[in-house]
Amino acid sequence: MSTYKAKVFVTLKPSILDPQGRTVERALSHLEHGNVSGVRVGKYIELTLHGRREDVEAQLKDITENVLSNPVMEDARWELEGA
């Protein structure tokens, strides 16, 4: 049985307003970083999984799509590497 490290990245879809990103953008502007725009805030999650790679990939896909993200509002992608 192998061990894998997964990195999951979840962001709001481009068509969804990002109030947290907007707040960060305004704060940066007030801190004299006015050249920054288009700030989007997301989630980063790390997981360690054990098993056969094919099974781990299927499990990670299910976890990413059904637990860690809302596919209606968010885009999610993951990376998997051997630990």
Provide the fold topology:
Elements: E1 2-12, H1 19-30, E2 43-51, H2 53-68, E3 74-82
Antiparallel strand pairs: 1-2, 1-3
Question: Care to describe what's here?
Answer:
The chain has 83 residues and is an alpha+beta fold. The protein is built from two helices and three strands. It has helices at 19-30, 53-68; strands at residues 2-12, 43-51, 74-82. It is elongated, with a radius of gyration of 16 Å. 6% of the residues are buried. The model has no long low-confidence stretch (mean pLDDT 97).
- Uncertain runs with pLDDT below 50, 5 residues or more? none
- Report the order of strands and helices: EHEHE
Using the CA coordinates, give the radius of gyration.
Answer: 16 Å
Main sheet overview: 3 strands, antiparallel
Indicate the overall shape.
elongated
User: In terms of structural class, how would the helical and strand content be classed?
Assistant: alpha+beta
Helix fraction bin = 25-40%
Total strand segments: 3
Number of discrete helical segments = 2
The CA-CA distance between the termini, in Å, is 12 Å
Major beta sheet, strand line-up: 2-1-3
Average pLDDT level: 97
Question: β content, as a range?
Answer: 25-35%
